[in-house]
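Co-fold these.
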Amino acid sequence: MLTERERFNMAEDRIILDHGAGGAASHRLIKDYIFSKLRNPLLEPLDDSAVLEMGDGIKIAMTTDSYVIDPIFFPGGDIGSLAVYGTVNDLSMQGATPLFLSLAFIIEEGLPLKDLKRIMDSISKAAKEANVDIVTGDTKVVHRGQADKIYINTAGIGKVPKGIEISSHLARPGDLVIINGDIADHGMAVLFSREELDPDIPISSDSAPLNGLVSEILKISDKIHVLKDPTRGGLGSALNEIAQNSNVSIFIYEDRIPIKEEVKAACELLGFDPLYIANEGKCIVIVEEEDADRVLEAMKRHPLGKDSRIIGEIREEYAGKVYMKTKVGGTRIISMLEGEQAPRIC
Amino acid sequence: MLTERERFNMAEDRIILDHGAGGAASHRLIKDYIFSKLRNPLLEPLDDSAVLEMGDGIKIAMTTDSYVIDPIFFPGGDIGSLAVYGTVNDLSMQGATPLFLSLAFIIEEGLPLKDLKRIMDSISKAAKEANVDIVTGDTKVVHRGQADKIYINTAGIGKVPKGIEISSHLARPGDLVIINGDIADHGMAVLFSREELDPDIPISSDSAPLNGLVSEILKISDKIHVLKDPTRGGLGSALNEIAQNSNVSIFIYEDRIPIKEEVKAACELLGFDPLYIANEGKCIVIVEEEDADRVLEAMKRHPLGKDSRIIGEIREEYAGKVYMKTKVGGTRIISMLEGEQAPRIC
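Predicted complex below.
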């Protein structure tokens, strides 16, 4: 009889890295192998969080993410703060107030205890900053070579305020698209750090908790339809998800998309398109035109939104597609990538 | 500058396998490195689930577990059903009604798609059987050799019925200790399957969802103080946790502890003590003596409780310790193991 490892080595159809990259291959895998087995109305929207009725009119949001980032420490953050902020942000993107997180470690035998200590210090600080409590946890240790240093899963629960209904399915023609600042910082910081490229290029992850910013804009407008953090797959993939889920097209303007000069240069150096590079402190806000200026001003007043800009609009024609007006005046389709440009970015 | 891997290889104080085994080493790690950084009143009880107030008198339980079991398919179950039942059981042990699960995969590049399909079929079936919905998920893929086939994290949410207060801190002197059947099946089934030992010894995991059984006994008694599933670390470690958390002693009788002849023989063959072998469908019920017979009868009527037995009682003296009256008439201390007898059992 074959061992599991022998069967593993002999299989024809296999999981490939692209299946975990948040692009088209991921979406197919999830649709064909996972979603098809679990079909239920709560999972149906496939948003960043599920919204659940707990009785007596109480609605909560729930989300989960595993973090397998390499390296575990990078400029602007580490796997610990990332695991807290990432899950806080997924809850915020549903308009929920993040409250409680679970924390589960899979640790490779041999991890220096001082690395674990540094990660826990970071988790503790991040939870305080994001105003969430870590309420339950789990620790597993696997043999050397059965993980890479440490993987962290955080699941989160938030409370959805009464009257809030925000989802990637709710963009409407005429709405405007806002982003709260420069794109591609996180992915490029991690890549430069992993590959030990020029340490003099000062690129730092944007990893941050977005619940404060979101709470400010929800206070001043009830016409916000979509919130989405463009993480794995970047701005390009996130906009494609919204266009498909809402059955609209999205039209963005290249010259309005904020990006740091050094990040742009780094992307060019490595041949990457910044539209597909992961962000961890960015939020796409899609809002009715009527409220767009008010929302933009409120975002600019927040420390995480100083560089906010309107970058495009929602249209009706060519539903499901994303278009970009380039600087030279042409228009190109921004499609969903098949895989990702670099794995293990979060 | 050293790479992360170089630092990893040079460290003096490191994570060892025992840190993940659910015994004394695990408890020290959690206390010294994790809990100390996260101290908050919700985490304080360190039960299988946290109990959270969501407003308007609604209480929910939340729990998380990562499953890293090897092999991923074993007699009586697989990593998929285990991940569903394990989290359902952790919620049930708080007296909560399990409702919603998250599902997060970390997959090793190269996993046969048919293995993923088989696992998803099992998850789907298990969720139906346990009457829970999987509402949100995540899939990460890591390079070959950075995981072992597949790891699964499930977090879960349940609703705690009004008036229910069950915790490992609530055992009281005079209470009786019941278990719903044979111990050590899961751990021995996994070990025999992993080591490819004699396949003619018919040992099968007891992996099962306990929410049905728990709901039956909560219906007929409001004098149940503790529910606990003796998973990693087995019955011995679980009883030690209860004794310490409740500041009582627990006295059990060897001749009342149900165990299958073949499992006992297998333990003897490998030199293992069945008291420390993991279970995945067992529940320790600690109840006031007055209600013990009614609860026992209700358990026996349930398919997962046919072999239920009273195995001991709670005492006041020697608080924090667990004692066993042996078959030959002596008394021995059942201490908490330092590590585990075998890693990656769940």
